[in-house]
């Protein structure tokens, strides 16, 4: 397969340019975000590409790939914490544990069953897919939980007045936040093959792999992604809803309007 040239990459920006023109004409105010996203993606991918050239060419490629993967887990944890904008007890620990567990299960499944040969490239790809889907799920789950706690803090006080303890409050608040957070990934999973052909499958088809084999690999990836999203959502929503109560069972200040 021939490598895509820079002219093709430039041509692919035509849709971005069209979006910029339409956004400017309609005064949507999203032009800056589109430009920043495009430039940031280019800079980050080029930087990562240069690092990969060095990693994959090293005599200790697997070791460096493992270090890179561990770094991705740490960065993902930091990103989730920053996107929330709150310092909540145990949220960082819960996020790190969920992302790390997802990566370990994904790597163990793919290489343990011999789906892909164990090498640095496959290790980075499998780990990258897992972490890449863990972050948005964790961020959405945490934001949903924070929003619900802030919107319903008076209801939480009512539950406390009725004798609810922390576990009962979590069981009451977390399910609704978790359901809302997991919906995007569930809908993507439901629609796969009908209105969308996911990346792993299309890549294998373009590489000449038998369609059924490509489907099997894609199913494995989709199930790992769905499980990763669900695990991260459960971890962060339960952690956030638990943090809405102080040690003496009062609603935390961050959940009250006007408080920080």
Question: What can you tell me about this protein's structure?
Answer:
The protein is mainly α. 77% of the residues lie in helices and 0% in strands. It folds into two domains: 1-56, no CATH class; 61-255, no CATH class. It is built from ten helices and no strands. The chain is globular.
Structural class: mainly alpha
Helix content, binned percent: over 70%
Order of helices and strands: HHHHHHHHHH
Q: How many domain modules? A: 2
The biggest beta sheet is recorded as:
none
Question: What's the rounded overall pLDDT mean?
Answer: 90
Distance between the termini: 55 Å
**What is the overall shape?**
globular
- Strands, count: 0
Radius of gyration: 21 Å
Poorly predicted residue ranges: none
- Determine the strand fraction and express it as a percent band: under 5%
Please provide a brief summary of the model.
This protein is mostly helical and 260 residues long. The protein is built from 10 helices and no strands.
Key phrases:
260 residues, mainly alpha, 2 domains, 10 helices, 0% strand, globular
Topology record:
Elements (H helix, E strand, L loop, with lengths): L5 H7 L1 H13 L4 H26 L4 H24 L6 H22 L7 H32 L1 H9 L4 H26 L7 H8 L4 H33 L17
Helix pairs in contact: 2-3, 4-5, 4-6, 5-6, 5-10, 6-8, 6-10, 8-10, 9-10
